[in-house]
Amino acid sequence: DCGFLSTQTVREPIREPFREPVRDGYERLSFSGQKLPPGFPGPFIFPEGLSSIETLLTNIQGLLKVAIDNTRAQDKQVQTEKSELKMELFRERELRETLERQLTMEQKNRVLIQKRLKKEKKTKRKLQEALQFECKLRDHAEQTLQQTGASDRALCDSLTQEVDNGNQGNGRTDAEAAIQDGRLFLKTTVMY
């Protein structure tokens, strides 16, 4: 028993040079930066390359996580911008509606003011015509008064001259004539 073990341990194993097994062409490719086309069967993973593959997968997972985080951040930013744009659109719509209401009110006011202005112009024209008519009447009345006044003065002057001439012929003085006229006035008032 022991001898058998001892002969085995003493004997040196026969060493043969290690030869890599023959691989297909796609297994010989270096994986540093080359990508396989989609659907292409992956190379057989050998135990000595396992740690670099794990590192590669970890890196890929990290990149995917960063990409997912970036996508989420971009989505969040897009949603924020979208909500801000909606609020801005809402504000602009409210402002536009307010301005349209103001414009409508201004147009109504303008129409009312134009109607008032038209009425006032018409009233002014009528008043102007009435004023011109009154001015013509006044001028005519003044001319009539001036003509009547001139003829009255001429008549008054002629009557005064006749009275003066008549008083001189009778020999009465002005005082006597005034007294005589006063008595006639008194008599006529008493009669009534």
Automatic annotation (TrEMBL):
Record keywords: Coiled coil
Coiled coil: 68-130
A single MF term (Gene Ontology): DNA-binding transcription factor activity, RNA polymerase II-specific
Any one cellular-component term (Gene Ontology): nucleus
Keyword Lipid metabolism assigned: no
Record keyword Cell membrane present: no
Membrane-crossing segments per the record: none
Name this polypeptide is given: Dachshund c
